[in-house]
């Protein structure tokens, strides 16, 4: 077995561990929905629908899944629990692929611009700064010259926290301390990355409530000043969401997308929640792709979102 194969197995094992709580809860609910039954009838499908909805898969996505299952069992209603699990796995993967057929499942460090500028946004407490540190590690391992920008100048210790992550990842950081103008920090970060010939700049921003208009509008200012330094910046806007908040994460995604052009989502804290089904809902229902998922606290525990691997982990290994 090659080292690449071993790495793939290790990532899948970590993913399965990360969604263990979600998998146990979902499979337990599915098991109860068909316990003691020898066929899949309307009542069984109703109970299966409840199992998916209460696992934070969401009403819209659940209805689409149930409709697909209903069509498949129309001819032969007999089905064991393992057969139903396999059918669910197949239909969910197909549904996610149909909605976003070109979404890559591999880490991409090829940029059209230099520096490639990424602005990271989200509410407080979702793991935004930690995600930036883990992203920096991924890009550094890909051979890229990385610069971090500590533009979260509002939260106490945010700059210090990002500085620690920059040291862990072995990348440089631009910071002006707490209470500095966040737009000025963002401007200096991109300017420094450009002058140094860096490949990528990852800019942290202050956590803000998605229903506070003035705070959300500040994101627009930060975005504009970076665009003055290098054309098209920021080239990516990543929104970090806490998977453990379930449907509230969906509402945050919609609110941020109304204010800034969010290009990708990061779902964190999957290892600490039973609400992993929200990843399926968000991946299916929003026009923004899920790019990364967080499955642990270590620096290596940020993975590119692979729909097939995720669904396999959520429903147990084949």
Q: Quick gist of this model?
A:
The protein has 12 helices and 8 strands.
Tell me, briefly, the overall form.
elongated
- Show unreliable segments: 1-9
Name the helix and strand elements from N-terminus to C-terminus, one letter apiece: HHHHHEHEHEHEHEHEHEEH
Tell me the major beta sheet: 8 strands, mixed
Q: In order across it, which strands form the biggest sheet? A: 3-2-4-1-5-6-7-8
What's the total helix number?
Answer: 12
Distance from first to last alpha carbon: 20 Å
Mean pLDDT: 88
Helix fraction bin: 40-55%
- Count of extended strands: 8
Please give a structural write-up:
The protein is of the alpha/beta class. The protein has 12 helices and 8 strands. It has an 8-stranded mixed sheet with strand order 3-2-4-1-5-6-7-8, with helices on both faces. Residues 1-9 have low confidence and may be disordered.
């Amino acid at each position: 077995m090659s080292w690449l194969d071993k790495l793939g197995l290790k990532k899948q094992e970590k993913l399965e561990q990360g969604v263990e709580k979600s998998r146990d809860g979902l499979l337990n609910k599915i098991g109860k929905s068909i316990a003691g039954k020898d066929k899949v009838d309307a009542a069984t499908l109703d109970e299966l629908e409840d199992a998916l909805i209460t696992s934070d898969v969401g009403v819209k996505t659940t209805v689409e899944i149930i409709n697909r299952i209903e069509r498949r069992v129309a001819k032969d209603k007999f089905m064991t629990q393992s057969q139903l699990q396999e059918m669910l796995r197949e239909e969910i993967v197909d549904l996610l692929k149909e909605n976003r057929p070109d979404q890559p499942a591999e880490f991409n460090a090829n940029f059209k611009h230099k520096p490639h500028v990424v602005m990271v946004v989200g509410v407080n407490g979702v793991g935004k700064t930690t995600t930036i540190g883990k992203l920096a590690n991924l890009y550094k391992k890909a051979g890229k010259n990385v610069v971090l920008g500590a533009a979260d100048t509002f939260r106490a210790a945010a700059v210090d926290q990002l500085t620690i992550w920059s040291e862990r990842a072995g990348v440089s950081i631009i910071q002006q301390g707490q209470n500095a103008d966040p737009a000025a920090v963002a401007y200096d970060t991109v300017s420094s990355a450009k002058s140094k010939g860096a490949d990528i700049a990852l800019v942290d921003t202050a956590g803000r409530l998605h229903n506070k208009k003035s705070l959300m509008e500040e994101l627009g200012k930060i975005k504009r000043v970076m665009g003055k330094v290098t054309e098209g910046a920021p080239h990516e806007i990543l929104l970090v969401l806490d998977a453990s908040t379930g449907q509230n994460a969906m509402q945050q995604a919609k609110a941020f997308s109304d204010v800034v052009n969010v290009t990708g989502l990061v779902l964190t804290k999957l290892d600490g929640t039973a609400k992993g089904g929200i990843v399926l809902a968000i991946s299916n229902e929003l026009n923004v792709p899920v790019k990364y998922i967080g499955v642990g606290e270590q620096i290596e525990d940020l993975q590119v979102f692979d729909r097939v691997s995720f669904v396999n982990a959520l429903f147990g290994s084949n």
